[in-house]
Every structure is written in structure tokens, then in C-alpha cells.
Design brief:
The chain contains no helices and 16 strands. The radius of gyration is 16 Å and the shape is globular. By secondary structure, it is mainly beta.
Length: 193
């Protein structure tokens, strides 16, 4: 719809006359790197590092936290949600593994249940940005590889010319705040990504 939302440690909605921001809910700490995902009449947002909540599209939205319908807790301390998008049927959430020896994942979720529908592992430490191209998720990973879901896995369709199988930057340091690509840093234009 035509409403405007913003987030920091809280989710905010711009009021109807555009003059003031109203707090909708706390996001449980820093929301840096957190996507806002519109899907099926709801707005989904990251809570903390590994959970998703949502609000409905009412004039005074009600927030839904994990363990409830329309919310998700990954319950995985080894992965943080890093990016996400929705196609016509599902929400896709990319992660960054906290250890360089672990692989990132993309979780497919119907946006309603309290558990993911399917999980795909990608051959990189992190999924940095995502876009939906012709109703199919495409993710840019931390090795500079563009991967598209082919039904059973995410396969390489292009790459930035970096050294193979090496992350562009270390993704595990506590002070690390800059990634190869912003989580909203991809777009589609006709037949191009």
C-alpha cells in the first residue's frame, strides 16, 4: 500500500499527514542489515538476528512476534538473517554463517507457519542481497557469485571476478559492518538483474 515504514531498533510508521513517526514495535536490538518484506497483505521484518515478525495492513497495525502464526524463529545461533525477498508464493530469507567454515542458507517460508518450509545451503559463508527475477529468487553470495534457485538448489548464473571460493571480506569480526553489497542492493530491469 502507500504507507511508509522505517526501522532502527524499532519499526516506525509515518502517520497519515506525513508529519510524525509512530512506533509500532521494538525489534529486539539492532536491526542493521534487516530487510522489510511485503507479502500477502503483511509486512515482515527481522527481530534481533535470527527471527522474523510481521504486522498486518490495518490502519493501526498489530505486531506479531515469533512462536505465533505469521512469525518465525530460526533457533539457529550459527546463522544470522541477512537479506530476504518474497515471490508470489513464499518468502526467501538469506543468512550469513557466523563461522567461515560454515555455509550460508536460504530459507523458504510460507509467511504463515512457525517453521521454514525448505532450507537450501549455498556454497559461501554469506548471502548478501536477494532479488526476485521472474518469480524466482536470485542471491548474491559473499564470494561474488550470483545464484538462482533451479528447483532443488541455488546454481551459479554469473559471478563478479574475484578469487574463487574466497569471501570478499571476513564476515565474522565483531566490528565488521561493511559488506560487498547492501541487502537491498540488487534490482531487476526487464530481463536484467
Amino acid at each position: 500500500d502507500d504507507r511508509t515504514f522505517a526501522m532502527s531498533a524499532e519499526l516506525w510508521k509515518l502517520d497519515d499527514n506525513g508529519s510524525d513517526w509512530d512506533v509500532i514495535t521494538s525489534l529486539g536490538g539492532s536491526a542493521n542489515g534487516a530487510p522489510l518484506i511485503p507479502f500477502n497483505g503483511r509486512l515482515y521484518y527481522r527481530i534481533g538476528k535470527s527471527s522474523m515478525g510481521s504486522i498486518d495492513n490495518a490502519d493501526s497495525p498489530t505486531a506479531v512476534a515469533p512462536t505465533n502464526t505469521y512469525a518465525l524463529a530460526l533457533n539457529d545461533n550459527s546463522q544470522d538473517i541477512s537479506c530476504g525477498k518474497a515471490n508470489a508464493e513464499n518468502i526467501f530469507l538469506g543468512t550469513i554463517a557466523k563461522s567461515p567454515t560454515r555455509k550460508a542458507r536460504v530459507h523458504q517460508w510460507n509467511g504463515t507457519s512457525t517453521a521454514v518450509t525448505k532450507t537450501y545451503e549455498i556454497d559461501a559463508q554469506g548471502g548478501l542481497a536477494m532479488v526476485i527475477f521472474k518469480n524466482t529468487p536470485v542471491i548474491l553470495d559473499s564470494n561474488g557469485v550470483l545464484r538462482m534457485l533451479n528447483g532443488g538448489s541455488f546454481v551459479e548464473i554469473a559471478r563478479i571476478p574475484f578469487k574463487r571460493d574466497k569471501a570478499f571480506r571476513d564476515l565474522t569480526t565483531a566490528t565488521h559492518t561493511t559488506f560487498l553489497c547492501h541487502y537491498n542492493g540488487m534490482a531487476t530491469d526487464g530481463d536484467r538483474i
